[in-house]
Specification:
The protein is an alpha+beta fold. It has a single domain (12-52, 62-127), classed as Thiol Ester Dehydrase, Chain A (Roll). Helix content is 15%, strand content 39%. The protein is built from two helices and six strands. The protein has helices at 32-49, 135-138, and strands at residues 10-18, 62-73, 82-90, 96-105, 112-124, 129-130. Strands 1, 2, 3, 4, 5 and 6 form a six-stranded antiparallel sheet that branches. A hairpin with a 5-residue loop joins β3 (82-90) and β4.
Protein backbone atom coordinates (compact mmCIF):
# COMPACT_ATOMS: atom_id res chain seq x y z
CA UNK A 1 0.00 0.00 0.00
CA UNK A 2 1.44 3.36 -1.01
CA UNK A 3 0.91 6.35 1.22
CA UNK A 4 0.02 9.92 0.33
CA UNK A 5 2.88 12.34 0.84
CA UNK A 6 2.11 15.68 2.49
CA UNK A 7 2.17 18.78 0.28
CA UNK A 8 4.76 20.55 2.46
CA UNK A 9 7.42 17.85 2.11
CA UNK A 10 11.03 19.08 2.30
CA UNK A 11 14.06 17.00 1.29
CA UNK A 12 16.67 17.40 4.03
CA UNK A 13 19.09 14.47 3.71
CA UNK A 14 20.22 11.50 1.65
CA UNK A 15 22.74 8.79 2.31
CA UNK A 16 24.22 5.88 0.46
CA UNK A 17 24.99 2.72 2.40
CA UNK A 18 25.98 -0.84 1.55
CA UNK A 19 23.72 -3.83 1.91
CA UNK A 20 25.62 -6.23 4.15
CA UNK A 21 25.76 -10.02 3.94
CA UNK A 22 24.59 -10.19 7.56
CA UNK A 23 21.46 -8.13 6.72
CA UNK A 24 19.99 -11.13 4.90
CA UNK A 25 17.61 -13.55 6.55
CA UNK A 26 16.93 -17.24 5.92
CA UNK A 27 14.71 -16.31 2.94
CA UNK A 28 17.73 -14.85 1.12
CA UNK A 29 16.58 -11.22 1.15
CA UNK A 30 17.27 -8.27 3.43
CA UNK A 31 15.32 -8.77 6.65
CA UNK A 32 12.39 -6.39 7.07
CA UNK A 33 13.69 -5.07 10.40
CA UNK A 34 16.74 -3.67 8.64
CA UNK A 35 14.64 -1.25 6.58
CA UNK A 36 13.78 0.50 9.87
CA UNK A 37 17.48 0.54 10.76
CA UNK A 38 18.38 2.14 7.42
CA UNK A 39 15.78 4.87 8.02
CA UNK A 40 17.06 5.34 11.58
CA UNK A 41 20.66 5.73 10.41
CA UNK A 42 19.68 8.48 7.95
CA UNK A 43 17.39 10.24 10.45
CA UNK A 44 20.06 10.27 13.17
CA UNK A 45 22.83 11.27 10.77
CA UNK A 46 20.77 14.31 9.76
CA UNK A 47 19.80 15.20 13.35
CA UNK A 48 23.41 14.95 14.57
CA UNK A 49 24.77 16.89 11.58
CA UNK A 50 22.38 19.82 12.04
CA UNK A 51 22.96 19.95 15.80
CA UNK A 52 19.53 18.69 16.79
CA UNK A 53 21.08 16.37 19.36
CA UNK A 54 24.43 14.96 20.32
CA UNK A 55 25.35 11.33 19.87
CA UNK A 56 26.74 10.81 23.38
CA UNK A 57 24.23 9.28 25.82
CA UNK A 58 23.23 11.80 28.49
CA UNK A 59 24.69 14.74 26.55
CA UNK A 60 21.41 16.65 26.30
CA UNK A 61 18.44 17.25 28.59
CA UNK A 62 16.09 17.45 25.61
CA UNK A 63 16.00 15.99 22.15
CA UNK A 64 14.10 13.99 19.59
CA UNK A 65 12.49 10.59 20.02
CA UNK A 66 10.20 8.73 17.66
CA UNK A 67 6.69 7.85 18.76
CA UNK A 68 5.74 5.71 15.78
CA UNK A 69 7.34 4.29 12.68
CA UNK A 70 6.03 2.61 9.56
CA UNK A 71 7.34 1.02 6.40
CA UNK A 72 5.74 -0.15 3.18
CA UNK A 73 7.82 -2.92 1.64
CA UNK A 74 7.43 -2.57 -2.11
CA UNK A 75 10.23 -4.83 -3.42
CA UNK A 76 12.69 -7.26 -1.87
CA UNK A 77 16.20 -5.93 -1.35
CA UNK A 78 18.90 -8.51 -1.94
CA UNK A 79 22.63 -8.56 -1.23
CA UNK A 80 24.98 -7.39 -2.72
CA UNK A 81 24.55 -3.73 -3.57
CA UNK A 82 24.26 -0.22 -2.26
CA UNK A 83 21.12 1.68 -1.38
CA UNK A 84 20.27 5.36 -1.28
CA UNK A 85 17.94 6.44 1.49
CA UNK A 86 16.34 9.87 1.26
CA UNK A 87 14.74 11.74 4.12
CA UNK A 88 12.04 14.37 3.89
CA UNK A 89 10.39 16.30 6.72
CA UNK A 90 6.89 17.73 6.92
CA UNK A 91 4.23 19.14 9.22
CA UNK A 92 6.38 20.75 11.90
CA UNK A 93 4.41 21.62 15.01
CA UNK A 94 5.30 22.99 18.42
CA UNK A 95 7.09 19.83 19.49
CA UNK A 96 6.81 17.32 16.64
CA UNK A 97 7.42 16.74 12.95
CA UNK A 98 7.07 13.89 10.50
CA UNK A 99 9.82 12.18 8.53
CA UNK A 100 9.39 10.30 5.27
CA UNK A 101 11.98 8.01 3.72
CA UNK A 102 12.47 6.27 0.41
CA UNK A 103 14.87 3.39 -0.08
CA UNK A 104 16.19 2.66 -3.58
CA UNK A 105 19.05 0.60 -4.95
CA UNK A 106 21.84 2.70 -6.41
CA UNK A 107 22.05 0.42 -9.45
CA UNK A 108 18.33 0.95 -10.22
CA UNK A 109 17.75 4.72 -10.10
CA UNK A 110 14.12 5.67 -9.60
CA UNK A 111 12.99 2.22 -8.46
CA UNK A 112 11.65 2.52 -4.91
CA UNK A 113 12.06 -0.60 -2.79
CA UNK A 114 10.48 0.76 0.37
CA UNK A 115 8.98 3.92 1.75
CA UNK A 116 8.26 4.74 5.32
CA UNK A 117 8.74 7.25 8.05
CA UNK A 118 8.32 8.21 11.66
CA UNK A 119 6.77 10.88 13.81
CA UNK A 120 9.44 12.61 15.87
CA UNK A 121 8.63 14.40 19.12
CA UNK A 122 10.99 16.82 20.86
CA UNK A 123 11.15 15.54 24.42
CA UNK A 124 12.24 16.69 27.85
CA UNK A 125 13.97 13.49 28.90
CA UNK A 126 13.80 14.07 32.68
CA UNK A 127 10.11 15.01 32.63
CA UNK A 128 9.29 12.25 30.15
CA UNK A 129 7.05 14.45 28.01
CA UNK A 130 7.08 16.63 24.94
CA UNK A 131 8.74 20.04 24.97
CA UNK A 132 8.81 22.88 22.44
CA UNK A 133 11.45 22.39 19.76
CA UNK A 134 14.27 24.95 19.83
CA UNK A 135 13.61 27.61 17.17
CA UNK A 136 17.01 26.96 15.54
CA UNK A 137 15.98 23.35 14.93
CA UNK A 138 12.38 24.11 13.98
CA UNK A 139 13.66 26.58 11.35
CA UNK A 140 15.33 23.65 9.55
CA UNK A 141 11.94 22.00 9.07
CA UNK A 142 10.08 24.78 7.28
Amino acid sequence: MRFELPANLKLVHRMTMPLRWGDMDAMGHINNTLYFRYMEVVRLDWIFNVGGARAEPGADDQGPIIVNAFCNFLRQLKFPGDIEVTMHVANPGRSSFETYHRIARCDEPGVVYAEGGAKVVWTDYAAGRSAPMPERFRALLT
